[in-house]
Amino acid sequence: MNRVLAAARLHLMNPVLTVGIPWGIALLSFCVNLALWATVGVGEESPGATTGGVASLYITVLVVFVQSVTQIMPFAMGMSLSRRTFYLGTALAAVGVALAYGAVLAVLAAVEGATGGWGVGLSFWAPGRLDVDNAALQVLVSGAPLLAAAFLGVAIGVVVKRWGPTGLWSLVVGAILFFGGLAILVSWQRAWGDVGSWLVAQSVVTLAVAIPLVVVLVTAALAFAGLRRVVP
Fold first, then answer.
1. Can you say how many angstroms the Cα of residue 206 is from the centroid of all Cα atoms in its chain?
2. Is-contact 150 65, C-beta < 8 A?
3. Which of 125, 120, 87 shows the shortest CA–CA distance to 230?
4. pLDDT in tens, 10-31
5. Secondary structure (DSSP) of the chain
6. How far apart are CA 15 and CA 37, in angstroms?
7. Beta carbons within 10 angstroms of residue 200's beta carbon
8. Which of 82, 116, 146, 232 has a 20 to 30 Å separation from 136 between CA atoms?
9. How far is CA 206 from CA 34, 158, 175, 176, 198, in A?
10. In a structure prediction context, what are the per-residue pLDDT tens digits for the chain, which is 232 residues long?
11. Do residues 53 and 29 make contact, with C-beta atoms less than 8 angstroms apart?
């Protein structure tokens, strides 16, 4: 267990990268949106309007965990940590990040609601249906997608580390073909209305907690299977 904790702490060796950059980019996105809402008056002209700027935090968390495999893993194995220990430490770090960031987002969402969207009607940190009344549930709603982003990053990092640029581009092409083919199929069946109705009918717990946790389970299993054959 001590070695797993040591592996988890490796992710905090460079807090500027692992914490500073994600939150710096998220705060930059927030400032841009706040200025837009304040100068253009989006909140007054379109009450209830939201922004997807908080997605910048989720995207940078994904990138950070890609780097956790491509950059930190060789160092960890150089310290005689096994692949399994490194993976468990990384998973522990991902859970810690998701809970901590989810709690911070819940606080920011509460302040946002109490101040009327920072005085300009901006809904940034928990936009739309992601803003829930229960504080504990807000942590889960904000944190579960972060956990999914982290494990997606680990899985992508494993692909890059094992197969290099060829593997990464193959993954990109595969994703384009899969989602593009899915979009073509839905369009052919003229089922976009049904898809939209299904999404609207789902609870926020299903969309923001249950589905991300399914993504976590799938990517965690795939990442662990791939990591066992990665060469430092």
1. 16
2. yes
3. 87
4. 888 888 888 899 999 999 999 9
5. -HHHHHHHHGGGS-HIIIIIHHHHHHHHHHHHHHHHHHHH-HHHHSTT----TTHHHHHHHHHHHHHIIIIIHHHHHHTT--HHHHHHHHHHHHHHHHHHHHHHHHHHHHHHHHTTIIIII---SS-GGG--S-HHHHHHHHHHHHHHHHHHHHHHHHHHHHHHHHHHHHHHHHHHHHHHHHHHHHHHTT-HHHHHHHHHHS-HHIIIIIHHHHHHHHHHHHHHHHHTT---
6. 31
7. 9
8. 116
9. 30, 28, 23, 25, 11
10. 688 888 888 888 888 888 899 999 999 999 999 988 888 766 566 666 678 889 999 999 999 999 988 888 888 877 788 888 999 999 999 999 999 999 999 999 999 989 988 888 888 999 888 889 889 999 999 999 999 999 999 999 999 988 888 989 999 999 999 999 999 999 998 888 888 898 889 999 999 999 999 999 999 999 998 887 777 6
11. yes
As given in the structure block, the two tokens for residue 129 are 């249906």
| Residue with token string 């940034």 | 124
Which two structure tokens, joined as six digits, stand for 12?
A: 């905090």
Residue 160's nearest CA partner among 89, 74, 67 is 67
Please provide the size of the chain in residues.
Answer: 232
Q: Which two tokens mark 140?
A: 């889960």
